[in-house]
Amino acid sequence: MSLPYKIVVGLEVHVQLLTNTKLFCGCATKFGSPPNTQTCPVCLGMPGTLPVMNRTAFDLSLRAALALNCSIAEFTKWDRKNYYYPDLPKNFQISQYDLPFSYEGFLEINAAADSKKEYTPKRIGIFRAHLEEDAGKNTHDESGRGADSKVDLNRTGTPLLEIVSKPEINSPEEAKAYLEEIRLMLREIGVSDCEMQEGSLRCDANVNIHIPYEGGAAATPLVEVKNLNSITSVGLAIAHEAERQYAQFQKDPVNYRIQKVNKTTAGWNAVKGVTVVQRHKEEAADYRYFPEPDLVPVVVTPSEIQAAKMAMGELPAEQRRRLQAAPFNLTQYDSQVLTAKGRRMVSYYEEVTAAVGDGKQVINRMSDLVMGALNERKEEIDQFPITAPAFSDFLKKTGSINQQDRREVFKHMLEHGTDAGAALTALGIATSFDESKLLAAVLDAIAANGPAVEDFKKGKTAAANRIKGHVMKMQKGAPNDVVQRLLDAELAKLTG
User: Fold this and answer.
1) Per-residue pLDDT at 443 exceeds 60
2) Comparing C-alpha atoms, which of 481, 478, 403 is closest to residue 444?
3) Which of 231, 301, 310, 396 is the most buried (most CB within 10 A)?
4) Which DSSP symbol is given to 255?
5) In angstroms, what CA-CA distances link 34 with 68, 71, 160?
6) Which residues of 316-340 are buried (b: 16+ CB within 10 A; e: fewer)?
7) Contact 330, 340 (CB under 8 A)
8) How many CA atoms lie within 13 A of 149 on its CB side?
9) Is the pLDDT of residue 232 over 90?
């Protein structure tokens, strides 16, 4: 169902970097420490203290900017962004304003899959990615018993990369795909752990809608939904805010087209599932930016850029393109599923495919067996007891048995040892079959399903499933892979 308006979204993603110390001092960045135990005069903004840039933080930011296809400035400086907030003891934040170290990038995303398991690729532009220091954290007593608020300054001064997208995201699904791709990419290149529940990846969503009418279109005032801490919340908040703005427009559409309303900020109430408008948004002039006098500008050399590129490794988008080509020939959907699990999962797949020789069979078995078991066991692939060589051996020895028996063997290997041969013996499952008998069954099914054969000849490839179903019904327990191979061969003869 199409909406009576177009959603327009720009995302500001804030990512804490994987450094041991803060951006301008030597305090630790460890999450979960007792409140206010990771502070010093520098990050507390005491008079007479001087900041010193964390070089590792800048190098990680440079790596991230290159992964986001940004242009890198040869000369960049620091600026003070002045504002008062309880968790900002200095009353200013060291950030970057008019000369960010990177700008004009893009991120390729694959929007949500449809019923055919296909993705729609889209390129989202990025205005800039700049480095700044994080603020602290306020906690509020919302029990109703009191009005206490507490401030924890452990996070103050933590290196923060802010990635600002262009307003080219047009649905909650695209916003979630954008965040998932950023999170995957930054984890893979070692820039951040992107743990949203720990606050190391946070998002502000700038949302408005464009409503067509005869002779033009009305654009609603921009609302910035702040501090969204889960990808699910981002999608829900965007959808709700778009609906709220449309409801406001419908109350007085004539005057709404001409009124001028400043940008506002809103919070997201996940319990009630609503956005709550909070205040008018400051403009750049309100922050009174001026160059940070205590930090020297940074000059980025070509050799530093090259070193950052070398440190990135293969990006998820590059992996997907490679996996969709020979010798793997994965579908767009399969490559998306595989790369979403990270480089170690891709390496596992590649090792098994090299041993087995059939990349499609491997991804099918991994999706069916390995990924499900990992979710149940809450393990990563490098913790999984069935190694790539053991899984390769499993596929070779169980290729001729039916799906249910294969599942039993896999389960036995997880519980009693990873030797496929021993599991087959223990379960009393035979792996021999009469291929000539199956071929005869395939030929009989082709002869008995004339309409399906004719549909297949006309290019309706799904008709082959009707023929295969006939074989499987008549030959209960027949190995699916072998039947598929024999059927494909015989149908190729008919259409060749």
Assistant:
1) yes
2) 478
3) 231
4) H
5) 35, 40, 21
6) bbebbebbeeeebebebebbbbbbe
7) no
8) 6
9) yes
Q: Which residue has the tokens 């290149």?
A: 189
pTM metric for this prediction: 0.85
Strand, coil or helix: what is 93?
strand
Helix, strand, coil content of the chain in percent (nearest 5): 40, 20, 35
Quote the longest CA-to-CA distance of the chain. 91
CA–CA separation, 380 vs 223, rounded Å? 39
Percent of the chain with pLDDT over 70: 93
Which has the closest alpha carbon to 227: 278, 192, 178?
A: 278
Secondary structure element (H or E) that encloses residue 341, with its range: none
What are 178-198's pLDDT values in tens digits? 999 999 999 999 999 999 988
Q: What span, in angstroms and rounded, lies between the C-alpha atoms of 292 and 130?
A: 15
What pLDDT was estimated at residue 255? 66
Chain mean pLDDT for the chain: 90
Residue 100 in contact with residue 317, Cβ under 8 Å?
Answer: no
The partner residues of 121 in beta bridges, in order of sequence, read: 110
Please name the residues in contact with 143: beta carbons below 8 A apart, sequence gap of 6 or more: none
Q: 9 — phi, psi (to 5°)?
A: -135, 135
Residue from 283, 286, 176 nearest 222 by CA: 283
Nearest to 61 by CA among 42, 80, 76, 49: 76
List the one residue out of 373, 29, 9 whose CA is nearest residue 198.
29
Give dist(CA 264, CA 142) in Å, integer: 24
CA 154, distance to chain mean position in Å, is 28
Q: What is the mean pLDDT of residues 224-245?
A: 94
* pLDDT reported for residue 145: 64
The tokens for 154 are: 């452990």
Question: CA-CA distance, 104 to 122, in Å (whole number)?
Answer: 16
In the chain, what are the domains?
6-299 (no CATH), 314-427 (no CATH), 435-495 (1.10.10.410)
For the four alpha carbons of 268, 269, 274 and 276, in that order, the dihedral sign comes to negative
- Give the strands of the sheet with 79-82, arranged side by side: 92-95, 79-82, 290-291
- Residue length of the chain: 496
80-105 core/surface letters (b: 16 or more CB in 10 A; e: else): bbeeeeebbbbebbbbbbebbbbbeb
CA nearest to 490, candidates 474, 472, 468, 475 = 468
Residue 176's pLDDT is 95
Q: Do the beta carbons of residue 471 and residue 487 sit within 8 Å? A: yes
List, for residues 53-86, the tens digit of each pLDDT value: 999 999 999 999 999 999 999 999 999 999 888 8
Cis status, amide bond into 327, omega within 30 of 0: yes
Q: Cβ(199)–Cβ(227) under 8 Å?
A: no
Q: How far apart are CA 386 and CA 349, in angstroms?
A: 13
